[in-house]
Amino acid sequence: MNNPEKIKQILLSEIEKMNRHREDFCRHPGIDFTRDRKIPFDTLLHFQISMESGSVNHELLKYFDFDAAAPSLSAFYQQRAKLSDDAFQKLFYCFNSCFKPECLLKGRYQLLACDGSGFTFTRNPKDTESYYNPSGRSQKGYNQMYLVPLYDLLNKVYTDAVIQPMRKRNEFAALYELIDRHTPSSGTVPVFIADRGFHAYNVFAHAIENNAFFVIRATDAKMKRLLGADLPKEEIFDIRVTRYLTRSLSKRKYLHPGSADRYRYICKEVAFDYLPAQGYGEYEISLRVLRFPIGNGAYENLITNLPEKEFPAEEIKEIYRLRWGIETSFCTLKHTIAAVNFHSKSRQMITHEIWARLILFNFCSYITGQVTFEKWKRKHMHQVDFSIAFKTCRHFLRLHSGEEPPDVEGLIRKHTLPVRPSRNFARQQRFQVPVSFTYRF
């Protein structure tokens, strides 16, 4: 049994384990999934994970080999509605738990990037927590869900995620929830990496209290607001600062009156889980602050707690540069894995589909990451063509009727792309319109 077959067997065995206890993953235990149907519990999970971007009718026909006895569209909708809200999320965790991170920085540091991305789905004005009224971006209005995942930059897999309706999104809360939920593998230490928008004392404190490290970007204005105006006047620096956080404005209560300039007031409306909401208390936090040029007269600010002796400034810059991997993963997730082509209007079902796409992404990435390549003399280094690789892995996963599987590893080795590190392009930001159900094929 080769690696792709082993990984597929792991996923199918996790689905089978859930199938044996399916009463824990349905809305009405003892009633749902108790009768024989054309789409039983395990088939339903496998089908939804391997779905492509076509209409549900077309996907059903492909999955059941265009058999006239294939289940109807109504049968699929009825079965899907029986799943509990966390069914695919539990499968995601179970599948991920079967693998340990193989690529680590310096043999022990797991680099975990966090960022957010919106997913637009079919207009539903009744869902007020995700609906936006007509505006310059959309003449009809639109609905969006917000995904905040943790992405392992070196192993190229998602390790966890928080999904929120767009109007209720809270990136700070999502990140410290992910930090608290993360369970490091034996011998590993997590390093959480995030862009501007995630810098907050509560995020820093959650990482420190969980014996983890972080590297988070901050703008000039936000850094001065967080740390104060007593930062160095130089354009380039790498310093350690200590701050005392308190909810009191009374200097008479300070435990370190000689360091009044190091105190930062946290008002009761701002979340900080290591100070009492009422009354007096202090929290001491030590941070490393870096500022360095990035070209064209621009400068970057990073806040971290990585030790100076083990991580000089150049290594911190390289660690943050790797964060771009989560941006490219979003592109793969949305367009190659087709996570923008949803098959529902319901927010609950959209959440199901996002978790299913994350499972598919990891399944493809685990297979791709274990493919070895021969070293040829070429002008450029080559990497996997993830578009072809992921489509090959999805086809391989979908096979379930005894069909002859393709040479997955051979196809992945055959399709590669040159790596050109010096290339850069302007980032294109455009609003994503959901693809109508009417025009799917």
Return the average pLDDT rounded to an integer: 89
Q: Give the beta-strand count.
A: 13
Number of helices: 13
Order of helical and strand elements = HHHHHEEEEEHEHEHEEEEHHHEHHE
What is the global morphology? globular
Name the structural class: alpha+beta
Biggest sheet layout: 11 strands, mixed
The quaternary organization reads as single chain
| Distance, first to last CA | 35 Å
Unreliable parts: none
Beta content comes to 15-25%
Helix content: 25-40%
What is the C-alpha radius of gyration, as a whole number of Å?
24 Å
Considering the chains and any ligands shown, give keywords for the structure.
441 residues, alpha+beta, eleven-stranded mixed beta sheet, two-stranded antiparallel ribbon, 13 strands
Report on the architecture of this protein:
The chain has 441 residues and is an alpha+beta fold. Helix content is 33%, strand content 19%. The chain has helices at 3-20, 41-49, 56-63, 73-80, 87-96, 171-181, 201-209, 220-227, 313-321, 324-336, 347-369, 386-398, 408-414, and strands at 109-114, 117-121, 131-132, 142-152, 157-165, 189-194, 213-218, 237-246, 263-265, 282-295, 298-304, 382-384, 416-418. It starts with a helix and ends in a 23-residue tail after the last strand.
Summarize the structure.
Helix content is 33%, strand content 19%. The radius of gyration is 24 Å and the shape is globular.
Compile the SSE list and pairings:
Elements (H helix, E strand, L loop, with lengths): L2 H18 L20 H9 L6 H8 L9 H8 L6 H10 L12 E6 L2 E5 L9 E2 L9 E11 L4 E9 L5 H11 L7 E6 L6 H9 L3 E6 L1 H8 L9 E10 L16 E3 L16 E14 L2 E7 L8 H9 L2 H13 L10 H23 L12 E3 L1 H13 L9 H7 L1 E3 L23
Parallel strand pairs: 1-6, 6-7, 8-9
Antiparallel strand pairs: 1-4, 2-4, 3-4, 4-5, 7-11, 8-10, 10-11, 12-13
